[in-house]
Amino acid sequence: MTDALHLTLQHTDGPYAVATVTGDVDLHTAPTLRSGALDLIQQGHRHLILDMRGVQFCDSAGLSALIRIWHGAKDAGGSLALAAVSGRLMRMLNLTGMDSLLPVHPTADDALSGSRPTADA
Fold first, then answer.
1. 87 SS3 class
2. Which residues of 74-92 are buried (b: 16+ CB within 10 A; e: fewer)?
3. What's the CA gap between 119 and 52, in Å, rounded?
4. Could you tell me the end-to-end alpha-carbon distance of the chain, in angstroms, rounded to an integer?
5. Residues of the domain holding 104
6. What are phi and psi of 17, to 5 degrees?
7. Is residue 121 part of a domain?
């Protein structure tokens, strides 16, 4: 585990944003992920995709951060999707039932093309 976590904005298109997460998501770094992602949502990117390909480790604090981000997106009338999720995180999502709320896609491009609602964006 490391103390460094980076959230890098990769793509924006109006209310849509793709951000890459790099580093371990744990007790020390989950607040950075949560605040960075919620800032993006507050800036108007209410449909957020987190590309998790750079995440090697995610614990329960990281899962809690994802749940809070999901709530923040929903409160803003948006959505949260994940891309390139590790097997460990996918198991955690499955065990907690969050996989039914958080769409998971193989890549950020897949998530972006599959996340656009048919109604008002």
1. helix
2. eebebbbbbbbbeeebeeb
3. 27
4. 37
5. 5-114
6. -145, 145
7. no
Whether 93 maps to a domain, the answer reads: yes
Q: Give the pTM.
A: 0.89
User: What is the amino acid identity at position 62?
Assistant: G
Looking at the structure of the chain, the number of domains it has is: 1
Distances (CA, A) of 49 to 1, 28, 104, 112: 23, 22, 10, 7
pLDDT tens figures, 8-60: 999 888 899 999 999 999 999 999 999 999 999 999 999 999 999 999 999 99
CATH of the domain at 20: 3.30.750.24
Crossing angle (nearest 10°) for helices 60-75 and 87-96: 70
Per the domain annotation, does 119 fall within a domain?
no
- Token pair 């793709």 is found at 18
Q: Which residue has the tokens 């951060």?
A: 65
